[in-house]
Amino acid sequence: MKRLDTTLYGNRWKPIAVLIAIILALPFFVHSPHWFTVLILIGLYSIITIGLSLLLGYAGQISLGHAAFFGIGAYVSGIFTTKTAMSPWLVIIIGMVGVFILAYAIGIPILKLKGHFLALATVGINIIVYVLLVGFSDLTGGPLGLQGIPKLNFFGLDLGNQLYFYYFVWTIVILVIFFSMNIVRSHVGRLLRSIGDSEIATQTLGVDVAKTKVAIFAISAAYASLAGSLYAHFINFIAPPTFNVNFSILLLIMVMVGGVHSIWGALLGTATILFLQEFIRFVSDTYLNISGQVEIVVYGFIVILVMIFIPKGFISILAGTWKLIRGQRNKITSEEKGIEHG
Amino acid sequence: MDFSNFLQFLITGLTIGSIYALLAIGFLTIYNTTGILNFAQGEFVMIGALTTISLISFGLPKFAAIILAIIITALIGLLIEKAVIRPAKNTSIVTLIVITIGLSIMLKGLGLIIWGTYPKTLTPIINIPPISIMGAVINPQSLFIFAVLILLLLALYFFFDKTFIGAALKASERNPRAASLMGINTATMSAIAFTLAAALGAISGIIITPLTDATYEMGFLIGIKGFVAMVIGGMNSVSGVVMGGLLLGVIEAFSAGLFSSTFSDAITFGFLLLVLFFRPIGLFARASGERV
């Protein structure tokens, strides 16, 4: 007897168990610091893209401005930990709460806009935040950036150690996944899907659509802030260009390529794009002897292809394969039963 | 602020504003014909400008190089419509946004491979010394840009109002389904819209380059500004978006001149947000009730 829950949302434990197994196993195969950095960045960016997937895939609202919230988180951590003696953990929380409130306030007018206009407005927010980061150079260090952000220390465990930080970041990612899944599986999640399908229909059912949209926007912004703080403590140096619209665009591409309608799609997309970047960089460095941002050509090309031919993202292929395997298995079992009963 | 400064800022603003206006017309044509907002629009500016520079360096006379560059860019626009936009026509808005962003990234990358990272210059198209009026200095290139804008507006007016293709294009802007029922091939109209927008982008790139220089990455921000100009202008008439473009340029020039050039982008986009919040139909929209 299948539980209704499982039928509606699929099994929640299996994918998480698989993910945890992969996370635990990877350090046995990966030894170079460079690849550890890539794995850690996948974790950090996933925190943001999972939030974006809630916003875009479930609630149907686009954002090209999440790099701004990522940046605010990073700078809050950077500024407070270099200029005051506050606990970095407290600062991370302050950043998240602050960004949540800020995004909530911005979200109220902005999320009245739809489609292209929402996209443009969020681009506007991102550019404004970027300009402020460059402009208020007394606080932020301006274009030169902020240096000397300390490594984290978790109850005596030195997170400057790459392996420890890797485990730490991915623990956070799993917590974020849990939290997000609970949102998706609660009544709020059903509201979000309903809003994604039709705002007007949801409104007519007596749901405060605006409030729900703004809340999910603020939550996804707080995720970005968390990722930003951790990023600042990981890289130890932050500068404004990291937090410009280009990065927001990259985040959106990650979510879309992975598959927008599932949290797992966000994770898959983030990993795919980062591995792709590494691969293209490797090929262009070793074989083509070209440097700079040449990879963006291939990159743009792949994005176009995926969007035209697999608009539901890579996760749909994965899900399709999984269904195929399961379908085969179910068919076999039902045939066996058929023999029994026959 | 004395009067000469005021005049100087105004002229600078109108110059860059004319460029935004041309881009906004391109955006408007594509948006109204196809419902697509082409985030790659700015890349046409880059392609137009850099192709002209390359053609001149190959030894072509300047005038021929300009015409050829505009034609090449227009053909790229056409190719993009056929190869990328058409196959994806019936997908969601977000998918289309990401596709045109992908296009923009790809074109920028091709620009980088072909032309490298160093900014390239184009000598002014007309060669007369700067004119000084009431303490303000007018770069003749600005006058040239105004002249081009006015000529293009006249040409577009003639095209949309007096030719059959123009009328058909306008019909598919108003109501694609009704237009297709009247025997207008809306697919062809979409192709024409992209070609026209690409050509307009190329022209803006060519006329602005003597003032700003051209690089492979000039496209994105200038494209976004064109988009902003269209939104401020109201998205339903050429005259409206031209006003939007000019206003945007003037705001930018004054905020850079009076406050600081660091913050001018923040002020411009702050203004955009205010318009979106308080008058989302745009400042110069005709009250038509068509767009909500």
Describe this structure in words.
The complex is a heterodimer of chains A (342) and B (292). Chain A is mainly α and 342 residues long. Helix content of chain A is 78%, strand content 1%. Chain A has one domain (4-340). Chain A has a two-stranded antiparallel ribbon. Mean pLDDT of chain A is 87; it is low at 336-342. Chain B is built from eleven helices and two strands, in the order ααααββααααααα. Chain B is 73% helix and 2% strand. The N and C termini of chain B lie far apart (40 Å). Chain B has 292 residues and is mostly helical. The A-B interface holds A 56, 62, 109-110, 112-113, 115-117, 119-121, 123-125, 127-128, 131-132, 134-135, 245, 249, 252-253, 256, 260, 290, 292-304, 307-308, 311 and B 37, 84, 87-88, 91-95, 97-99, 101-110, 112-113, 117, 220, 224, 227-228, 231, 260, 262-263, 265-266, 269-270, 272-273, 276-277, 280.
Strands in their spatial order, largest beta sheet of chain A: 1-2
* Main beta sheet of chain B: 2 strands, antiparallel
Note the run of SSEs of chain A as H and E.
HHHHHHHEEHHHHHHHH
Chain pair forming the biggest interface: A-B, 44 and 42 residues
Name the strands of the widest sheet of chain B in spatial order: 1-2
Using the alpha-carbon principal axes, give the shape of chain A.
globular
Q: What is the terminal separation of chain A in angstroms?
A: 22 Å
Mean pLDDT of chain B: 87
Query: Rg of chain A, please?
Result: 21 Å
Overall outline of chain B: globular
Give the helix/strand class of chain A.
mainly alpha
**Which consecutive residue ranges of chain B, at least 5 long each, have pLDDT under 50?**
none
Total of helices of chain A: 15
Helix and strand pattern of chain B: HHHHEEHHHHHHH
Helical stretch count of chain B? 11
Between the first and last Cα atoms of chain B, what is the distance in angstroms? 40 Å
Q: Give the percentage of residues in beta strands of chain B.
A: under 5%
